[in-house]
Amino acid sequence: MTELKVLITNHEVPKVAIDLLGEKCTLIINEEKPYANREQILAKCPGVDAIFWASKERLDAEVLDKAGPQMKVVGCMSAGLDNVDVETLKARGIKLSNTPVVLNDAVADVAVLLALGAARRITEGRRAIEQGTWRYGVQWQLGRDISGSTVGIVGLGGIGQAIVTKLTKFGVSKFLYSGHKEKEEGKLLNAKFVTFDELIKESDFVIIACPLTTETKGLFNATVFDKMKNTSILINIARGGIVVQNDLVEALQQKKIFAAGLDVMTPEPLPRDSPLLKLDNVVLLPHIGSATIGTRAAMAQLTAQNILMGLGGAPMFTPVY
Ligand code: DGY
């Protein structure tokens, strides 16, 4: 390869990726702390051949224009692509990859963590300890069982399938899923394909595991919360935008549903005065689904490999199109 330049938009990208790319390319790294903003990324784009995108900033025509026509390869270090203008990249013939599969287990673990945490009222329990209101009580702090429950997965992709596999060990009695079409994997996992409406009405746990798209934006609104069981628990490990957050807050306040467990919300970071933080029946995590040492290294390595394949004219391992 001739001297190829790769921009890495975040200095915290695991070393495995820096080493892989550094062997073959000249690296330009956004060293700004804690992480580079849009202007700082744009300033480093001109003249690069590929971009390693590890940023929540929007990846759009402006970035491509700044980089120039020689820039033909983008590797995103994420599974979600809701911050990427995929159609524009495709129209301009840019090779684009993301990092599905390698994060399935880590994200599914967080779904299980939130499902159990919300069912067992861990926010309220922790507050009781802190506030000195912990008491003995036969009827105190009772949660809900996941064993024997019906779990509905909205979007049976890789992460949804990993959630079903993990929850099978918890004695769930029925798995439902909704999506565009029935899947072979659903049959193998003993999960029943149902309409979205059936899923929200019948499930004790509703787990959102679908991408944020124009179709799923705001899918969970007041009408949906009204249809859910008032004993049900909502888990979101996908994207905050799939839920109308004000409607969720109201549903939780009015006990239209039992509880929620959220790894994602709107906006991120969540403002410290958000009403979500005042609620006892919600468990919150700061979008850490894929945040394990091993998973982030695997995501970084896959992104670097994809970029090298793309620059070398070979098919990427996990292309977006
Ligand atoms: C992803 O990769 O999309 C996860 O949400 C981590 O950001």
Overview of this protein structure:
- With 321 residues, the chain is α/β, with parallel strands linked by helices.
- The chain folds into two domains: 118 residues, Rossmann fold (3-Layer(aba) Sandwich); 181 residues, Rossmann fold.
- The protein has twelve helices and twelve strands.
- The strands form two sheets. A seven-stranded parallel sheet has the order 8-7-6-9-10-11-12, with helices on both faces. A five-stranded parallel sheet has the order 2-1-3-4-5.
- Strand 4, helix 4 and strand 5 form a beta-alpha-beta unit.
- The longest helix has 19 residues.
- The protein binds (2R)-2,3-dihydroxypropanoic acid.
- It comes from Holotrichia oblita.
- This is 2-hydroxyacid dehydrogenase-related.
Topology:
Elements: E1 4-8, H1 15-24, E2 25-29, H2 38-44, E3 50-53, H3 61-67, E4 73-76, H4 86-91, E5 95-97, H5 104-119, H6 122-131, E6 150-154, H7 158-168, E7 174-178, H8 184-188, E8 191-193, H9 196-202, E9 205-208, H10 222-227, E10 233-236, H11 245-253, E11 259-262, E12 282-284, H12 293-311
Parallel strand pairs: 1-2, 1-3, 3-4, 4-5, 6-7, 6-9, 7-8, 9-10, 10-11, 11-12
Protein name: 2-hydroxyacid dehydrogenase-related
Descriptors:
321 residues, alpha/beta, Rossmann fold, 7-stranded parallel β-sheet, 12 helices, 12 strands, 15% strand, elongated, binds (2R)-2,3-dihydroxypropanoic acid
